[in-house]
Amino acid sequence: MSATAATTMASRTLPSTLSSGVRAIKLELISYFRTPDTVFFTFLFPIVMLAIFGTAFASVGEIGAKPDGSGGITMAAYYLPGMLAAGIFLSGLQNMAVDIAGEKNGGWLRRLGGMPLSPVSYFMGKAGQVFVTASLQAVLLLVFARFVFQVELPNEPALWLRFAWIFALGIVTMTLLGIALSALPRSSKSATAVVLPISLLLQFISGVYLQFTMLPEWLQNVASAFPLKWLAQGMRSVFLPEHFELAEMNESWDLGLVAANLAGWLVIGLVLSLLTFRWVRRS
């Protein structure tokens, strides 16, 4: 094949792949919102949990006040960062792992080999669905917190810029880990049974539902080996007052460690995905 012909084929393939990927995103979103259990356990779940915690602990009043009595926040404001981290975790890791495992064991990926949809377009659809749903979820969660519980949101551009890179890094990391985890279930029926306990365990030990420093030191060290702890810590650095960093393990937000740990798990997720993912194509 001549260089000109190869260039022409590449120029035709790229737009086709992109257009197929965009269509795949639309189909994934339609499928996502037509599945009630998926919508509840990954999309609405953090909002429901914030509503429960914000209402149940409303009588506690403000927490974390300085010695002079200033700087306290409501329990709804305290739980907001954890719910944002949980939303990214559920949309990326849990939903992706269950979804791909079901499609793989149900024969969908086997049939993909005989369809015009390319693997690149397939993953564009999956990644696009995660990004859109997680972004929409985060917006709804912030709006819900602001107007239902009157949570004060950051007013500094630097904090929203920090939120943007933590959110983006968290989305990519959790999505890749979800793809890698999809290789673990042996059948579509066992996918939820395998993934959900892992998901719940990590949420409880990572500072999403419980104050992280309330956990035993050994459990804090275990949780620190996983990315959700760092994602939740990064979100706390955005939405909690500065003096709350004294309650962290090192009495600091440790944003460098947040970035390093999320980036490290991104690489691990990428490597595991490449090593374990199989299309199960027809020969």
Provide a compact summary of the structure.
By secondary structure, the chain is mostly helical.
Task: Please explain how this structure is put together.
The chain has 283 residues and is mostly helical. The protein has one domain (14-276). The chain contains 10 helices and no strands. It has helices spanning 3-33, 36-56, 75-105, 108-112, 119-148, 157-181, 191-205, 217-223, 227-239, 255-276. Helix 2 packs antiparallel against helix 3, helix 3 (75-105) runs antiparallel to helix 9 and helix 6 packs antiparallel against helix 9 (227-239). The longest helix is centred in the N-terminal third of the chain and has 31 residues, at 3-33.
Layout of strands and helices, then pairs:
Layout: H1 3-33, H2 36-56, H3 75-105, H4 108-112, H5 119-148, H6 157-181, H7 191-205, H8 217-223, H9 227-239, H10 255-276
Question: Which descriptors would you attach to this protein?
Answer:
single chain; mainly alpha
Structural class: mainly alpha
Q: Return the domain count.
A: 1
Shape: globular
Low-confidence stretches: 1-12
Distance between the termini: 26 Å
C-alpha Rg, in Å? Answer: 21 Å
Looking at how many chains there are and whether they match, the oligomeric state comes to single chain
Tell me roughly what share of residues is in helical segments. over 70%
- Helix tally? 10
Biggest pleated sheet: none
- Order of helices and strands, N to C? HHHHHHHHHH
Total count of strands:
0
In percent, how much strand structure appears in the residues? Answer: under 5%
Residue-averaged pLDDT: 88
